[in-house]
């Protein structure tokens, strides 16, 4: 700085003092990192890392499916035409609820056969009794009585067969049959329309029991030998509106013995309980818990973890502000991330302003 020579001595001293102070301030500001400057300019929210009592092995993608026994097809015992349908696809039904009315010609024929079989049985009973009396009196041979009894048993068998067919049809006098729901659940398929044909080859209705689900999991290669049947799994479902998040729990039931050469992953299946918001076909993230016993690790909010250079990082508060620190992410389930290395329980991390801190760090 150029100082005019005619200024008084006191002014010169003050000028040099200001110059020195200005230089000190500039030097102090240079010591603080860019993340610290961002933190000073923003109101950063923080949280402490919490100890995780039983650290998961990892989080893997999965698809919610139904177990094989959860689907039941409703079929008609005889071909016919749908004259009335009471339900729509996706509707919840209870056991025994009418689904449709089908009219068929076969029940009418069965009704006629049943009436004839009943008449033939009455004739056979009377004839057998008469021949038995004659045989006892010695008028006819006993072989005639045996033949009459055989015809009686045949008539009884024919009547019983026609009664079973009539009960199977459940038909009225006009040949109409009412198809009913065999279980309580949800109609996943309605394959018939009013006036349309109903045959034996295709089920007009399929009902899903929504009280149990399965998870089809895709395990990464690193977990191929570590995941075993019986290990617990958890799926966190976000809440809607004012509803809180829901956690569904289950267990591994099977693990494929081989690795898929295309995806380099291992398929596994797990049971999962039925909770609100869980539907078949839904894609979820499942956390697989480690075997019983304590394991080291910390839990932090998921949104506090970011990636820098492809590696997971968190911003840890220090003396000079927030500094990025590389960590090892064990699992990320719902709103909590589990860190196995790089962060200790009790350390304070940033939970807001992450994009700004990341931009300053880069």
UniProtKB/TrEMBL annotation:
Annotated ranges, domain CzcB-like C-terminal circularly permuted SH3-like: 298-353
Entry-linked Pfam families: Beta-barrel_RND_2 (PF25954), CzcB_C (PF25975)
Keyword list, A-Z: Transport
GO CC terms: membrane; outer membrane-bounded periplasmic space
Domain CusB-like beta-barrel: 216-281
Coiled coil among keywords: no
InterPro entries: Beta-barrel_RND_2 (IPR058792), CzcB_C (IPR058649), MFP_Cation_Efflux (IPR051909), RND_pump_MFP (IPR006143)
TM spans (from-to): none
GO terms classed as biological process: copper ion export; plasma membrane copper ion transport
Gene Ontology terms for molecular function: transition metal ion binding; transmembrane transporter activity
Family: Belongs to the membrane fusion protein (MFP) (TC 8.A.1) family.
Protein name: Nickel and cobalt resistance protein CnrB
Species of provenance: Croceibacterium atlanticum
């Amino acid at each position: 700085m150029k100082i005019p020579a005619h200024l008084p001595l006191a002014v010169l001293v003050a000028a040099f003092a200001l110059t020195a102070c200005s230089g000190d301030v500039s030097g102090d500001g240079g010591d603080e990192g860019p993340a610290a400057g961002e933190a000073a300019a923003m109101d950063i929210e923080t949280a402490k890392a919490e100890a995780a009592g039983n650290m998961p092995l990892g989080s893997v993608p999965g698809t919610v499916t139904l177990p094989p026994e959860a689907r039941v097809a409703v079929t008609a015992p005889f071909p016919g035409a749908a004259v009335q349908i009471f339900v729509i696809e996706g509707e919840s039904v209870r056991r025994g609820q009418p689904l449709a009315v089908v009219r068929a010609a076969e029940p009418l024929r069965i009704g006629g056969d049943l009436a004839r079989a009943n008449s033939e049985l009455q004739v056979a009973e009377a004839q057998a009794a008469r021949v038995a009396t004659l045989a006892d009196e010695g008028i006819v041979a006993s072989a005639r009585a045996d033949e009459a009894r055989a015809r009686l048993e045949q008539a009884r068998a024919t009547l019983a067969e026609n009664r079973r067919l009539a009960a199977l049809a459940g038909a009225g006098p006009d040949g109409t049959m009412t198809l009913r729901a065999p279980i309580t659940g949800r109609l996943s398929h309605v394959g018939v329309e009013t006036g349309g044909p109903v045959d034996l080859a295709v089920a007009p209705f399929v009902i899903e029991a929504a009280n149990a689900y399965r998870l089809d999991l895709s395990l990464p290669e690193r977990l191929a030998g570590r995941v075993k049947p019986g290990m617990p799994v958890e799926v966190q479902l976000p809440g809607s509106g004012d509803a809180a998040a829901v956690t569904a729990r289950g267990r591994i039931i099977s693990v494929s013995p081989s690795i898929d050469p295309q995806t380099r992953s291992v398929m596994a299946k797990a049971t999962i309980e039925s909770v609100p918001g869980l539907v078949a076909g839904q894609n979820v993230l499942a956390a697989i818990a480690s075997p019983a016993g304590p394991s080291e690790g910390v839990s932090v909010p998921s949104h506090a973890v970011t990636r820098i250079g492809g590696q997971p990082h968190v911003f840890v508060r220090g003396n000079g502000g927030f500094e990025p620190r590389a960590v090892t992410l064990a699992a990320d389930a719902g709103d909590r991330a589990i860190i196995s290395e790089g962060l200790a329980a009790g350390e304070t991390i940033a939970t807001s302003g992450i994009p700004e801190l990341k931009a300053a760090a880069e």
